[in-house]
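Attaching the record inline, Q. Sequence:
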Amino acid sequence: MIHSMRQAYLRSNLFLILLIRNGAFMLLFIFASGFSIDQFSRNEYYLVFEEGTLKKMEDLSLKISESKELEAYQGALLMKISGLQKNANLKLKTFKSGRLLLESSIHANPNNTEWRFLRFMIQENAPKIVNYRNNLEEDKSEIINNFNACDKKLQVIIKDYVQKSMLLKLDDLSN
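Structure, as predicted:
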C-alpha cells in the first residue's frame, strides 16, 4: 500500500515536471505507449545518462517510469535530470524523488552491484549542498569486490566511467 502510494506520488511529480517543460500531448502519447523491461537497453540508458541532453533524459525517464524493475535506473536518471534543470525548487524536488527511488531499490536488493554503481556515480558527482555522499566507500567496495561477477556489458560501462572518476580507478578493478 505504502509502496503504491509512493509510486503514484513520484509519477505525478514526474508528470508535472515534464508537463511544464514538454506539453501535454507528447506526454500522453508516451504514457499510452508503455515500456517494459524487455525493451530496456542498458547501453542506451548509459549513453543518455552520460551524454544526453535534458530532453533526451526526460524522454527516457518517461519510458522507464512505468516499470517497477527499472526504479533504480529511473531514480538515478531523475537525480541526473535535476542537475540540468534551471528552477532551484524543481531541482531539489526532482533530486529527492530520484533519491527515494534509487535508495528504496538498493534497500530491497543491496547486493545489486549495478544499482550500487549508479548510486556511486550520482554521489561522486552530487553537489555538496544535497548532502548525498554517505555511501561512496561502501559502494566502491561493492563495485570492486563484485566487478568480475558482473556481466561483460556492465564491466565495459564501469571501465568507461572510471576513466572520469576521481574515486574509483581502473587499477582498483584488477584486484
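The chain has two domains: 1-108, 110-175. Residues 15-35 have pLDDT under 50 and may be disordered.

More tomorrow.
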